[in-house]
Design brief:
Low-confidence stretches: none
Radius of gyration: 16 Å
Mean pLDDT: 97
Helix content: 10-25%
CATH architecture: Roll
Largest sheet: 8 strands, mixed
Strand order of the largest sheet: 6-7-8-5-9-12-11-10
Order of helices and strands: EHEEEEHEEEEHEEEEEE
CATH class: Alpha Beta
Distance between the termini: 17 Å
Length: about 220
C-alpha cells in the first residue's frame, strides 16, 4: 500500500513547522499560515490548522541497515520513548524494529525498519534517509466497521491482529493501524487513545473526521 500524503491537523502551525524543519531537518515544500508540507522520501507529510486536535500516530519507513544510526541521530534531537528499558521495539512477527518519539503536538512518531522490504542505504543517516510514510493510525470504537469501510473502497488484506482490539491492514509498504480506543493503549507509552482527524492520499484517498471515513477522488 503506497501512501502519497498524510494530512494531520494542528492548533499550532508555527510550532510544528519549527519541530519538523529545525529539529528533524525535514525539507519544507509548502508554507502558509494555515498549511505546511514536508518531504518524507516518496511521501509528503502535511499539517493543516484546526483549533482543537487530538494526538495520533504515524510511522516513517527507514533503511533496514540504519536503525542504530537513526537512534543516535534522534537522541541528539528528541527524547526517545522507551519500551520498558529498551529504546528499540522488536516486532519479531513483523520482521521489523522501531524507534518512537513525540512531535510538538505529542503525536507519537515512529521510525520503522522492515527487513521484508530489504531496502538499505550506504550514506550516513539523515532526514533524507526516510523512504516514505509507512503507517497511519486510525482510532475507533468499532475496528470491524472501519476495516470494512476501507475494504469497500479498495480490497485491503489484514496484516496482523483481529477486528475487535487491534488490526493492522495493508502490507509492509504501508499500513493502517486500526486501534480500538476503548480496549488498547498506544505503544510504547500506554497513553489513552483518542479519535484523531486526518486525510490520506495514495492507494486510498479518504478523510477521517470525527470518526467517519469519507472517500474522495
Amino acid at each position: 500500500m503506497k501512501i502519497k500524503e498524510i494530512i494531520l491537523f494542528t492548533s499550532d502551525i508555527l510550532r510544528q513547522k519549527q519541530f519538523y524543519q529545525d529539529v528533524l531537518d525535514f525539507e519544507l515544500v509548502f508554507n502558509s499560515e494555515t498549511f505546511i508540507s514536508f518531504n518524507t522520501g516518496k511521501s509528503i507529510l502535511s499539517f493543516q490548522y484546526k483549533s482543537e486536535t487530538k494526538p495520533s500516530h504515524i510511522a516513517f519507513n527507514i533503511p533496514t541497515n540504519k536503525l542504530i544510526e537513526a537512534l543516535e541521530w534522534l537522541k541528539k534531537r528528541v527524547e526517545i520513548l522507551p519500551y520498558g528499558e529498551q529504546f528499540i521495539s522488536n516486532f519479531e512477527s513483523w520482521n521489523a524494529k522501531a524507534i518512537y518519539f513525540y512531535d510538538s503536538d505529542n503525536n507519537i512518531l515512529e521510525f520503522i525498519a522492515r527487513e521484508n522490504l530489504g531496502i538499505t542505504s550506504d550514506g550516513a543517516f539523515s532526514s533524507k534517509s526516510i523512504i516514505s510514510l509507512n503507517e497511519m493510525a486510525i482510532a475507533t470504537s468499532d475496528v470491524k466497521n472501519v476495516y470494512e469501510t476501507i475494504n469497500s473502497i479498495r480490497v485491503i488484506p489484514v496484516f496482523d491482529g483481529n477486528l475487535e482490539r487491534f488490526c493492522a491492514v495493508g502490507n509492509d509498504e504501508g499500513l493502517f493501524i486500526i486501534i480500538n480506543k476503548d480496549l488498547k493503549k498506544w505503544h510504547p507509552t500506554y497513553e489513552d487513545v483518542y479519535i484523531s482527524d486526518f486525510i490520506i492520499k495514495g492507494d486510498y484517498n479518504f478523510s477521517y473526521i470525527n470518526g467517519e471515513i469519507k472517500e474522495f477522488t
